[in-house]
Q: What sequence folds into this?
């Protein structure tokens, strides 16, 4: 059974930093695609940053230079380091792992962690 458990969200002032964590069980992060998405109130879920199984990173324009994805293989945990946060970064952040089989891609999601950035 795959479980992704997120932590690290909270309230932060504009310009501040947060690090989100996503601890995985039942799946090995380093052999699969992984990423972070977010959903702001009234908006669709969108990509923040992701890395495929080959190590190639893709990021949203708003994330460039401010957000970074990383992984601790020993802990089987992924992280999202967020710096210079802005009020428009307020959203629920979700970690994602994607696995591939003959049936195609299957996605697993964390429960989400809320990030609120005050002006």
A:
């Amino acid at each position: 059974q795959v479980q992704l458990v997120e932590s690290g969200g909270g309230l932060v002032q504009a310009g501040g930093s947060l690090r989100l964590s996503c601890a995985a069980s039942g799946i090995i992060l380093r052999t699969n695609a992984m990423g972070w998405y977010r959903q702001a109130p009234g908006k669709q879920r969108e990509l923040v940053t992701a890395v495929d199984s080959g190590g190639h990173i893709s990021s949203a324009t708003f994330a460039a230079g401010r957000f970074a994805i990383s992984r601790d293989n020993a802990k089987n945990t992924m992280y999202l380091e967020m710096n210079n946060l802005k009020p428009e970064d307020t959203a629920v952040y979700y970690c994602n792992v994607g696995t591939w089989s003959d049936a195609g891609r299957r996605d697993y999601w964390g429960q989400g962690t809320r990030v609120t950035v005050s002006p």
DSSP finds no helices and eleven strands in the chain. The mean pLDDT is 96.
